[in-house]
Amino acid sequence: MQTFNGLYAITPDTDDSERLIEQVGAVLDGGARILQYRNKGSDTVRRLWQANILASLARSRNALFIVNDDVELARAVGADGVHVGRDDADIAAARAALAPGAIVGASCYDSLELARAAVAAGASYVAFGAVFPSATKPGAVAAPLSLFAEAASLGVPRVAIGGITAANAGAVVAAGADAIAVIGGLFEQADPGTAARTLAALYR
Ligand SMILES: Cc1ncc(COP(=O)(O)OP(=O)(O)O)c(N)n1
Ligand SMILES: Cc1ncsc1CCOP(=O)(O)O
Ligand SMILES: [Mg+2]
């Protein structure tokens, strides 16, 4: 598996597939190394269509492609893996449903204990957040940046998520996050490609 670090772009919920594809292309060209398709909507036809296109787009840029929540959708589009949280499939079940080398990422919120358990269950990476208040997910629990140093001994990549922007990402990288997962800091910006270049440059 490619090294799991750098800018981790997560797609916003949108029905505007054309604009989404254009923005994701710009973000990948700007240096995002990992792309997650995250759509909390219920239109399964649109989600399959969008995920298929984005899987091809990511592959064309040698980026990893992860599907949020939906193991079946990840398998259907040949994704590199899935990301699961407390309300989603468990790690072992997700891994059993995907190819042997699949990536299974786990949300660990503000809990080092959850991260230890996730790694023991086979998680490929652990994600902590929200590290800052998130307009995308206002109810997300707050996670301190200190978790990244504390989690260094777990031996898997540590991903930060929540309210990350060009203004605060430097502190997250300095705290030890191997990757920064970003939605609004990319897709709510006037120029997502430039925002991606700024954030990706923190890992060079
Ligand atoms: C990289 C990454 N980290 C955390 C999340 C959040 O997942 P989850 O807690 O399951 O919440 P939803 O995203 O499903 O609302 C994520 N998706 N990606
Ligand atoms: C899914 C999720 N989990 C914790 S915060 C968050 C939303 C991240 O979006 P943004 O980068 O716009 O804050
Ligand atoms: Mg989830």
Would you mind describing this structure in some detail?
- With 204 residues, this protein is α/β, with parallel strands linked by helices.
- It has a domain at 6-105 and 164-203: Aldolase class I (TIM Barrel, Alpha-Beta Barrel), CATH 3.20.20.
- 37% of the residues lie in helices and 19% in strands.
- The protein is built from nine helices and eight strands.
- The chain has helices spanning 17-29, 44-60, 71-76, 91-97, 112-120, 146-150, 169-174, 184-187, 192-200, and strands at residues 6-10, 34-37, 64-68, 81-84, 103-109, 125-129, 158-161, 179-182.
- Strands 1-2-3-4-5-6-7-8 form an eight-stranded parallel β-barrel, surrounded by five helices.
- α1 runs parallel beside α2 and α1 runs parallel beside α9.
- The two termini are 20 Å apart.
- The mean pLDDT is 96.
- The structure holds ligand LCLJCK34, 4-methyl-5-hydroxyethylthiazole phosphate and magnesium ion.
- Ligand LCLJCK34 is lined by residues 8, 10, 36, 38, 68-69, 83, 85, 88, 105, 107, 127, 159, 161, 181.
- 2-[(2R,5Z)-2-carboxy-4-methylthiazol-5(2H)-ylidene]ethyl phosphate binds at residues 134-136, 163.
- Its EC number is 2.5.1.3.
- Pathway: Cofactor biosynthesis; thiamine diphosphate biosynthesis; thiamine phosphate from 4-amino-2-methyl-5-diphosphomethylpyrimidine and 4-methyl-5-(2-phosphoethyl)-thiazole: step 1/1.
